[in-house]
């Protein structure tokens, strides 16, 4: 989708922010914005400045110049206006070891008794029912991470900032988190997410901001960045010829290869989901698959090292 086609409300505006510590410049002329429903990936190598940007937005760090506004309200570091619209998980969640997960929920939502339907929905979606009533000192790394994500999502934030949310999550939990983020985004919630797991990020984000040495080196819509059309899914299934027929009937371009796999040209970011669903509905098993061509990882490496 082209930027001009989107007429949505701007939730976050970061305008030309700069931050130095001593002589070292941590952020230089950073500008970007986030609209409602956007899922923006903030990506870059270690030490690029991702956490510094997130902390600046959250007033946890004071910038030297520039402006940040949330839902039209300027962040000025001495007032809470605007900040209540944001939920965040930065680095590790700070949790009280002798309280249960549910105690945390009640405390952060100021509810003594009934927890809201929306909160229960998030607890279920993140599969936290089994441990939400246990004391946090008994939680594993992944459980603590889910707790941090849950806290970030409490009280219906308009913008959710997640710094490496997949840290410590197992593959099933990653899928749960991904589905939850996508469903909340459909309801208008915006996300700014940093992650080094680019294959995971690639599935959910619609835009990326690539940062290196405290500077933005690329701001793109994912579809543009990946120049879809140069991306392929390579598949081996229980019935390749039937799969190819089904896919061709759905206007996917396929080419066979001698190693028993076939290649499908991806049309947009929903293509993989559509392909898997089509095969699943026709009882065709996927034996092996991998992506080739442009990926978020190859685009990031190209942006940084070319
Ligand atoms: N308080 C500070 N004083 C001096 N330098 C700092 C401070 N905080 C961060 N830095 C430096 O700022 C740069 C950006 O750090 P930041 O944590 O924002 O990077 P990042 O992109 O989040 O990295 P990672 O992917 O490793 O988490 C790094 O070079 C870091 O050493």
Automatic annotation (TrEMBL):
<dbReference type="InterPro" id="IPR027417">
    <property type="entry name" value="P-loop_NTPase"/>
</dbReference>
<dbReference type="GO" id="GO:0005524">
    <property type="term" value="F:ATP binding"/>
</dbReference>
<keyword id="KW-0547">Nucleotide-binding</keyword>
<dbReference type="Pfam" id="PF00005">
    <property type="entry name" value="ABC_tran"/>
</dbReference>
<keyword id="KW-0813">Transport</keyword>
<feature type="domain" description="ABC transporter">
    <location>
        <begin position="12"/>
        <end position="238"/>
    </location>
</feature>
<protein>
    <submittedName>
        <fullName>ABC transporter, ATP-binding protein</fullName>
    </submittedName>
</protein>
<comment type="similarity">
    <text>Belongs to the ABC transporter superfamily.</text>
</comment>
<dbReference type="InterPro" id="IPR003593">
    <property type="entry name" value="AAA+_ATPase"/>
</dbReference>
<dbReference type="InterPro" id="IPR017871">
    <property type="entry name" value="ABC_transporter-like_CS"/>
</dbReference>
<dbReference type="InterPro" id="IPR003439">
    <property type="entry name" value="ABC_transporter-like_ATP-bd"/>
</dbReference>
<dbReference type="GO" id="GO:0016887">
    <property type="term" value="F:ATP hydrolysis activity"/>
</dbReference>
<keyword id="KW-0067">ATP-binding</keyword>
